[in-house]
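Tokens for chain A. Residues wanted.
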């Protein structure tokens, strides 16, 4: 007696029964389904490709967030992100040139000025520039404006005009200390233009003119003093040797005769004049 054939084993729950390849559906509907699935796969791959491939230039860094948590900065080069999971923020590491708008400042000696400046800075910590501050460019600009007014308000007009390098250095140090927690490095600050009121410009012009006149008078007086010293020495020599006075007369006559003129000067010795004066007195 032949025993009955046992039924095929039942596959576990959630698992499809094994099917030999020769029993796979090979009809036209199956081929259509395969083409549709391949097309959908290619479409989704092309659609999602820009979301998980990133290229960062040499002067940039990409700060990665995964589900809202900071992963770190990557770059430069090409790297892969997880679609809909990772988010990247690009940060430029090049030096930024920022013009500080003109600020109206009252100096320590109560002079009203309008001063503008330029600031040079760059990002050195991309993570801090993204996490610690919302807009580091605008924040740096505001810090520069307030610091410019504060520093110049503690200086006098002469210091601002004559000690520009020291003021620029103070501005750079103060602004850099305030932007350091944001990952921003301030490399230089330069005061560009100082606009003075018209009345102050006229006063400074008069002061400069008076100073030039004072120097001219001092130089002229110094020249007169030196000339008098030389004349004193010459008079001493002539008093010791009276013949030198006659030689001086002859030299003066030769200098006058060298020019084209009709003036002839005959020197008369003073001794002769004294002789005539004595005769008049005796009479």
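Reply:
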């Amino acid at each position: 007696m032949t025993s009955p054939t046992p039924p095929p084993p039942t596959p576990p729950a959630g698992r499809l029964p094994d099917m030999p390849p020769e029993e796979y559906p090979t009809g036209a509907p199956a081929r259509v389904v395969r083409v549709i699935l391949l097309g959908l796969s290619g479409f989704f791959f092309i659609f999602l490709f820009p979301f998980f491939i990133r290229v960062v230039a040499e002067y940039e860094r990409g700060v990665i967030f995964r589900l809202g948590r900071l992963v770190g900065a990557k770059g430069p080069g090409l790297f892969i992100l997880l679609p809909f999971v990772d988010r990247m923020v690009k940060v430029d590491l090049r030096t930024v040139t920022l013009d500080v708008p003109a600020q109206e400042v009252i100096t320590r000696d109560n002079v009203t000025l309008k001063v503008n400046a330029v600031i040079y800075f760059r990002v050195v910590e991309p993570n801090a520039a993204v996490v610690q501050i919302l807009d580091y460019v605008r924040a740096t600009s505001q810090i520069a404006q307030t610091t410019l007014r504060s520093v110049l308000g503690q200086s006098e007009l002469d210091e601002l005009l004559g000690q520009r390098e020291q003021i620029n250095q103070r501005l750079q140090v103060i602004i850099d200390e305030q932007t350091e927690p944001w990952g921003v490095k301030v490399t230089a600050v330069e005061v560009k233009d100082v606009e003075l009121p018209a009345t102050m410009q006229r006063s400074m012009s008069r002061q400069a003119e008076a100073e030039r006149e004072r120097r001219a008078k001092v130089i002229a007086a110094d020249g007169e003093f030196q000339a008098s010293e030389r004349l004193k020495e010459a008079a001493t020599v002539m008093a010791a040797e009276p013949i030198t006075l006659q030689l001086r007369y002859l030299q003066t006559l030769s200098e006058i005769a060298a020019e084209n003129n009709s003036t002839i000067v005959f020197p008369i010795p003073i001794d002769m004049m004294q002789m005539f004066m004595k005769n008049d007195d005796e009479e």
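The mean pLDDT is 80. The chain has three domains: 29-92, 96-200, 239-283.
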